[in-house]
Predict the structure.
Amino acid sequence: LLGIVAVLILTVVIIAGTCKTKQIKISGLSYYTEAEVKKAVVENGYIDNSVAYFLKCKIASPDLLPFIDSIHVRINRPDTITVEVKEKKRAAAHCGSSPLREYAVNGKYVYFDKNGYALESYEKKYDDVPLVTGLKYDELVMQEKIPVKKEKVFSYLLELTTAIDKYNLPIDQIYIKEDGNALLISDKITVDLYNKKDIDIKISELAGMLKKVKGKGGTIDMKYFSEDHKIAVFQPKKS
């Protein structure tokens, strides 16, 4: 027993003395910068020892930034670790004139998650994050859920943004109509999805449709589109 205790103590001493972390590498980023994530790592329960930090993250992963879903820590060398990041899906709403509390973010983009929580605000608009417009609310509070009347709109937006990302569609804006359905805007083309049915199939078919009308202006009407009848009508914009 004493021998085991001695070995454990010696192991701890060796790890403490030889595994001091000198370099933190970050991978898997989509929107956050490496500097932002490194800063968050250091400020949230960081241990300056590669083995100790690795074990700590295995037991309980730290909350780093609002749109980081999870992290995985790898030990590259005794003095180097890599923090692999998995980011959450996000969408953006532009707050030009709507009243907000806690943060003066008028004129900025508010980024929200799949549950509708407003988590971050920036002047910057990420190119591949769809801009959501048409949401109706009286007041928006950062870190709280956006108070829209139809809360199911957020699960609908998640389905849309996931499909748009999956098929790499060049969608600039998602406009939510009064009836809760969406218009997709791509350059000078407006796509009327009409309803919430067959979203994945509609978006997959749109990839080819948008290529055919590239450079033109008008509306793609998917009122009569279904899985069995893949019909869409293009109405050119009147000059």
Notes: The mean pLDDT is 83. The first helix runs from residue 2 to 18.
